[in-house]
Each structure stands twice: as C-alpha cells, then as structure tokens.
Specification:
disordered N terminus; mainly beta; 6-stranded antiparallel sheet
C-alpha cells in the first residue's frame, strides 16, 4: 500500500463533491473519471470503487440484511476511498467505464419456508421465490473482470438424502408467497416463478426446496426488477422422482425484460428427471 496515496485519498474524500446518480438500474455502465469514486449499497454489500491513475481501488464490507434497503443507492463523488482497507487492480489504459453486472448464485439455493407449507395430492401451486444475486465488477470497454462478490452472504448447507449423495448449496429463507403482488421488489434479489404439481397420493411437504439457479438465466426488467425464467417441478405418482422443467420464455412480469447473463451451467433436455430427494428435503 502506498502511504502517500492513501493519505491523499482520505484528504480528497473529505473534500469530495457528490453527484447523485439519476434513477437507473444499478447494473447500468457508468463513466468514472480518474480521481472519482463510485460508492453505494447493494443488498448488504457496501462498496466503494476509486479510479486512480492506471488502477482501480476497491473497498467493500457486508452488514446485516435487516439494514438493507429495497433500492440500490449509488453516487459518484470526487476523491478517494473513505476506507483505509482496500484492494488494488492494475489496469493501465482500460478507460473509464465501470459496471456492476448482476449474476445468479454459483450453487443451488436451498429455500426453507418460514412457516410449514404443504401441497395436497392432485394440486398445483406457483410460488414466487427470490434469491440474492452477486455482482461482477467489470471495468473498461471491452470489459475486464476485476472480481465477483455477493450482495448477501448466504450460509452453506448440504442438501441430499445422505452424506454420500447430494451437493453443497446455499441456504436461504422464504415466505413462499403465491401472489405476485405480495412479493417485495428488492434490487438485489431475482424472482423465480416456481410452479409445483403434486401427482402423488400423499401430501407434499415443502420444507426445503433446492432451486437450481446455476441453470437459469438472469433478466433485467424495465422497472429495474431482476427475474429468471419460470421453473416447474412435478412430483410423479412414484414419489421418488420429480420432473424439472425450465421455461424457454423470457419473463414479462416487470415489463419487457432483457437478458443480463445466461446460465452458469448448461442442462440438456434429456436430463430433466432428477431424484426427488435432491429437489425436495426429507
């Protein structure tokens, strides 16, 4: 770390001139001139990115989700970082463009309803599940990836019928809302319509559901919301099997939507049937 530069950045930070960002999606590319910082909060992530000569300096920290706001307020200011702890990325001659590109999680997310939920035999229902997104910090044109980080730090969990069969996932909680109007819109969470049909003879307890987000694409809507395609799960008459289908259609709940990024993992049409115990918790 350069002590002279750090001292200078703190001085500039105290004298900064703040320019509030206009109302736009937080993933919209921005031009950050040398000597300026883009700062704000996305989910539980507090982030500052300073454009120094031939380098970018990144400071970040996480706080409790109870303090997060539905929006993602960002500002551009003159001067350096307010934090003394940061990372430096040497990018000579890479221009002034900076973008926070949202991405879905790199593992399935195990959803646990806050209250017990059951689906009787012969019934189907659609729940709207939100999962936190991460962001890729990219600079320049063409863009160069500096790093990827989460907007919310989820805990790890093992999901499967045994310690030998299953996979490491992220764990999250949900209210399992089935009315779209009741789903809160939060800039750091992507909404997935999840349709479940129970064709088995017994009720289906929805205690835990593994949502395969690495197989989904991420879309940004006109209203600034984040969406994925709809996912369909069918519990067959043989309760040990479930059929997983991912819709091809672009989501339209927030108006016209544009794809931000494709799935992390590709899936084949022949691989839609998976073990029931790997989709629903026992």
């Amino acid at each position: 770390m350069n002590p002279t530069w750090t001292k200078r950045s703190r001085i500039l930070g105290r004298k900064r001139a703040i320019r509030k960002e206009p109302d736009k999606s937080w993933w919209t590319p921005r031009e950050i001139e040398e000597g300026s910082t883009l700062a704000g909060r996305i989910g539980t992530l507090e982030l500052e990115v300073y454009h120094a000569p031939d380098e970018w300096c990144v400071s970040h920290a996480w706080f409790d989700e109870a303090e997060a706001t539905p929006e993602a307020p960002l500002e551009i200011r003159r001067g350096g970082l307010q934090s003394e702890e940061f990372e430096r990325y040497l990018c000579e001659g890479k221009g002034t463009r900076l973008r926070f590109s949202p991405v879905l999680a790199d593992r399935p997310v195990v959803i646990r309803p806050r209250q017990p939920v059951f689906l009787p035999s012969g019934h189907e229902a659609t729940m709207y599940i939100s999962t936190p997104v991460g962001l890729r910090l990219e600079v320049g044109d063409p863009s160069v990836l500096l790093r990827e980080m989460s907007t919310i730090r989820l805990s790890d969990t093992w999901f499967g019928p045994s310690t030998r069969e299953g996979e490491i996932c992220y764990s999250d909680r949900t209210h399992a809302r089935h009315c779209l109007d009741d789903v809160p819109r939060r800039a750091y969470r992507a909404i997935t319509p999840l349709a479940i049909r129970n064709d088995a003879a017994s009720p289906l307890p929805l205690e835990k559901i593994s949502l395969p987000v690495p197989l989904l694409s991420l879309y940004g809507a006109e209203d600034g919301g984040l969406w994925t395609q709809a996912v369909s799960l069918v519990r067959g008459s043989n309760s040990d099997m479930a059929n997983l289908t991912i819709a091809r259609e672009v989501p339209h709940y927030g108006g016209a939507a544009e794809m931000i990024c494709g799935p992390r993992l590709e899936h084949s049409r022949s691989g839609l049937v998976r073990a029931f115990s790997l989709l629903f918790g026992d």
